[in-house]
Amino acid sequence: MTAIVKLTANFERNLASVERFLLDAQAPFAFDALIGQLLDTVIPNLELFPLIGPDLLATRAGSAEVLRLQKSLYQQAGNASIRQYAMPDYVVLYSVSNDTVHLLSIKHHRQLSFDLEAVWQTPS
User: Phi, psi at residue 117, to the nearest 5°?
Assistant: First the structure.
């Protein structure tokens, strides 16, 4: 069975942020390479193997802050699992529910953090 991969608005905002980050770092061709990796490797892998990344909600929390974040994500995710796909220079967070994969967020390893609350915000 092949999963359907969909981009969220937050993922698209993150891509724009990564592009600005790479332009500021004077690495404009790196963004084109990222898009190529997403289209040629990441998305096809997730279509065939949606459970490929570790389940972040099943990971043992090492601090009260992580435990609080996990509980919040668990409540918001419903029946979906929240997983991580590690690339050489990027980390992708995605959810899996039934036969659908939603790309939630992407960051370059040198960017600071994920804005997970924005993932579930509905547009005004």
Answer: -65, -30
Cα dist. 15→25, 30, 99 in Å? 15, 12, 24
How confident is the model at residue 71, as a pLDDT?
Answer: 66
pTM over cut 0.85: no
Sequence spans of domains, the chain: 4-119
102 has a pLDDT exceeding 70: yes
Token pair 């370059």 is at which residue?
108
Helices (H) and strands (E) in the chain, counts: 4, 4
77-111: b (≥16 Cβ within 10 Å) or e:
beebbbbebeeebbbbbbbbeeeebbbbbbbbeee
In whole angstroms, give the CA distance from residue 82 to residue 43.
16
Angle among Cα 111, 60, 38 to the nearest 5 degrees reads 40
What is the rounded average pLDDT for all residues in the chain? 83
Which residues, in sequence order, are bridge partners of residue 55?
A: 83
Architecture of domain 4-119: 2-Layer Sandwich (3.30)
